[in-house]
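does this look right to u?? threonylcarbamoyladenylate version
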Amino acid sequence: MTQDMRRAERLEGEAGVARAATLLRSGALVSFPTETVYGLGADARNSDAVQGIFAAKGRPHFNPLIVHVPSFDAAGDLAEMPDWAEVLAQAFWPGALTLVAPHRGTLPDAVTAGRATVALRVPAHPLALQLLDATGRPLAAPSANPSGRVSPTTADHVLDGLDGKIAAVLDGGPTQVGLESTIIGGPTPTLLRPGGVPAEAIEAALGAPLAAAPPQAANAPSAPGQLASHYAPNAPVRLNALHAAEGEVHLGFGPVAGDVTLSASGDLHEAASRLFALLREIDRLGKPIAVAPVPMVGLGVAINDRLKRAAAPR
Ligand code: TXA
Ligand code: MG
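got this back:
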């Protein structure tokens, strides 16, 4: 019987962490919670296991993975961390920040898509940290969704997309942040993907402005899920909608009430944590989605980035 035909085990608590670590060490795929979204984890040193991530997600091979490590020192074992990266790690790790740095050539090419750099993150979720500790390996983990779809913020979301293709999911309840990590690369600190840590906070920690990401070819994103259509529900999405048109479900924010709201009080943290779950819920109704304007400050930049990709032509 192939891995393909089995249902995923649902794991919880301390015993769940131990089982997940055993599975990961044997080369299996295990989804685990982080504070941003659920990751689809594999032993980052095991080339076959990492290839399995691409197969399960239907992820294009040119799109490299984020490697999760327990500490800044563990990141330094895998990559030459520049001074600015150390400053940002001090300020935001564990947390929703991924740093891209030149690797030391010890990881399989599948992880880095053959690049000279690797993306690294110390996640803040207690179960993720316990799992890294119990496994004793760096864990490669993209978001645990089929490629191009909305990222999972609960274990049920993970199973919706990947049951039958993974060995297990470690259930840690709904994730706190709800959006993927912010990605910063070099050689001078450059914003490659807006995410859970606002650019303003990163610039304050650096004491300098971030560079903007260079424009990139559609088949070779220099970072991130930065393909135009991404995070996409099945239904069409219309942005900056003050009112819904006939047949649309209206997703509100702040003063724009909508049929259902990202945050009635206009709180961007609440909106970020609810965004992906609400897109999925509305999608189940099979109706087009109209979304109220969300301000372009703080987490609003990442929320608008994901909305823009969800609305892009496919
Ligand atoms: O919050 C998150 O970042 C979640 C959790 C699970 O940690 N992970 C996540 O992974 O969002 P994923 O694969 O969905 O997005 C990672 C992005 C990819 O779009 C990829 O292009 C970028 O990181 N990336 C990975 N390695 C890179 C590198 N060496 N240079 C530039 N971008 C890189
Ligand atoms: Mg993703």
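The chain is about 30% helix and 15% strand. idk if thats expected tbh
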